Amino acid sequence: MAGDKTFYEILQISPSAGQDEVRAAFRRLARERHPDLLSRDLRRGAEAEFQKITEAYNTLIDPDKRARYDKNLESADREILNPKDLARALLAKAAECQRAGDSNRAADFYRQSLAHDSNNPRTHHLFGLFLAQNLGRLADGLRHIEQSIRLDGMNVRVILDASKLFAKARMLARAQRLAQTAAELSPGDPAVENWMLQLKDLAQRETR
Hints:
By secondary structure, the protein is mainly alpha-helical. The chain has eleven helices and no strands.
């Protein structure tokens, strides 16, 4: 249920609401949002929304259905409160904000994710790239991506991304060592081979 509105949220009532409050909430929403009250252009979306309102009402007005629903809701809440599960949910939020261009919220979600699971190499990897590429914080990005390699030293993609960040920081010797490691882990990988050629060109330009 994580990420979806609960039936209580749909009806805009408290989980402790009594049956009279459930009925009153449904009647109010029916007056405001029933599809028959809207123009044809708006009706299709309203029908889907009102189906959810009706489902919420039918569940919460029936004591047995409501008890089963509350039990399932509590189980879902307990599951998401597991630190690693919560960290994954926060990481997904970070990625969503990043795609939307909301860098400040994305950074907050990345930090919260690491606070709940500081040994997740994927989070360190993605946060490192985000810091370096979106916020211009290259040193911090390198720190996180190095931690990702320490936690998962066999991930070619992470090693390749780290090599590129070190090259961006003009630390070519470190970038070359990482590229060589990636080549040894994944022989014949076109992405690795192409990057090694680019690194060679960068190194030659640096010596001129």
